[in-house]
Amino acid sequence: MLRQFLRACSPTRVTRGSRWEFRRAVRRASAPPRRSGSALVAAASTSRPGPSCPPQVRLAQVRVVMFSDDDLKTPASAATTGKEWLIADVPVGTARYFYGHGKWYEVGAGFLETLEEELRELLGKPSSVQLPAWPKGVPNAKGRDSHDEDWYNKQAAGQEGYLLFDKKNIVTDKFNGGGLEVCDVLGPDNQLICVKKATSSDGTAPLNHLFAQAVTAVETLRSDEAIRSSFLKQVADRTPDHRLLSDFGTLKVVLAILLKDGQEITVDSLFAFAQVSLLQSARRLRAMNAEVEVVAVRR
Predict the structure, then answer these.
(1) 21 in the Ramachandran plot: left (φ > 0), alpha (ψ -120 to 50) or beta?
(2) pLDDT, tens digit, for every residue of 4-40?
(3) What is the pLDDT of residue 92?
(4) 142: number of Cβ within 10 Å
(5) d(CA 108, CA 102)
(6) What is the pLDDT of residues 147-185, one digit of tens each?
(7) What residues pair up with 163 in beta bridges, in sequence order?
(8) Are 68 and 167 in contact (CB under 8 A)?
(9) Is the pLDDT of residue 47 over 50?
(10) What pairs with residue 290 in β-bridges?
(11) What value does the mean pLDDT take over residues 75-89?
């Protein structure tokens, strides 16, 4: 058994704007896990340590909450623990270990072959949507690319038959009074299009967030009548004859991903843990009668 040894620190929250900084602050153990069992210490820096906070942080006590606004008044998710945000992929001899969602997993070579075969089948499916290119923009006042996800979603929604739903959250008590963003763009054929830019420097965190968004949205739409009614009302107010209003049973989830320089999405271009996370999410979505497509956005 592999044991986690995480030292205590006062709970903290990581906001939407700083969640990537939190992820970067978590250091991976420099040595791979040993089969005989070794202590793994995951450390994270915090800008507001408590007076008795030791050098390491107990990730299980850290609380991560995403917000949909810069004022941190509208939660966009339930609180999760810090260990949910730590990911590692460590080869040891002929075995391979993955750390995610607070646990270590050992994956054999046979499973990896099966995983990659299923992933190739998923990535090889033709797309049912037409998405524009995502060129780089000029730096804004903060030195960031002006063509961010907000800009791109508006471009995609500008096409005939497509509707913008980015930041159009449905407020619900289920997420502590926060909002559920069902999708970024709604396609003409019941496609819930979820968009994410994921560069190599970001690791797998943006993709894991994208997959989780899709699963949470479909799961909530299927199980919560109030949220489903609110979402359909938003659709009807803008497009009274949209197909979704008469055929809600058939949903398509489109994961639109911009990798570095708009490269193709293949088994080789995804981190191993992202491969596992993608397939787990795809299986959950299919179990809820939702088709899944993965689309590479081009530069």
Answers:
(1) alpha
(2) 322 222 333 333 333 333 333 333 333 333 333 322 2
(3) 82
(4) 6
(5) 20
(6) 999 999 999 999 999 999 988 888 766 666 567 889 999
(7) 186
(8) yes
(9) no
(10) 251
(11) 74
Please give the angle made by the CA atoms of 186, 190 and 195, to the nearest 5 degrees: 40
Question: In this structure, what token pair is assigned to residue 232?
Answer: 């359909």
Confidence label for 118 from pLDDT (cuts 50, 70 and 90): very high
Higher-scoring residue by pLDDT: 108, 250 = 250
Asked if residues 245 and 283 have their Cβ atoms less than 8 Å apart, the reply is no
Tokens 């508006």, residue located? 154
Distances (CA, A) of 5 to 8, 28, 37, 62, 229: 10, 13, 11, 15, 46
Which CA distances in Å does 194 have to 21, 56, 241, 263, 289?
23, 35, 22, 18, 17
Instruction: With beta carbons less than 8 A apart as the criterion, state whether 217 and 170 touch.
Output: no
pTM for the predicted model, two decimal places:
0.69
Mean residue pLDDT across the chain? 77
What does the angle CA 55 – CA 58 – CA 64 come to, to the nearest 5 degrees?
115
- Of residues 156, 145, 124, 150, the one with CA closest to residue 297: 156
The Cα 261–Cα 271 span in angstroms is 16
Identity of the amino acid at 208: N
Please give the Cα distance from 154 to 294 (Å, whole number): 20
For residue 261, give the amino acid letter: D
